[in-house]
Amino acid sequence: MLGFLPDDPVIIAVVVILLSLVFFSYLLIRRTILEFRDGMR
Fold first, then answer.
1. Is the whole-model pTM more than 0.70?
2. Which UniProt keywords are given for this protein, alphabetically ordered (predicted)?
């Protein structure tokens, strides 16, 4: 299938969890900054 993906499902699960954590923290920080900017106006 994909050559760069390891066959170990544990490594794949860890990578997926890390990527989702980074994505959700980005969304949280972006929403906080936008609400802070609206509150300053």
1. no
2. Membrane, Transmembrane, Transmembrane helix
Mean pLDDT of the chain: 87
The model's pLDDT over 18-28, given as tens digits with 9 standing for 90+, comes to: 999 999 999 99
Q: Are 6 and 12 in contact (CB under 8 A)?
A: yes
Extract the tokens encoding 23. 């994505």
Give me the residue label for tokens 């066959």.
Answer: 7
Among residues 2, 27, 28, the alpha carbon closest in space to that of 15 is found at 2
What lies within 8 Å, CB to CB, of 11 at 6+ separation is none
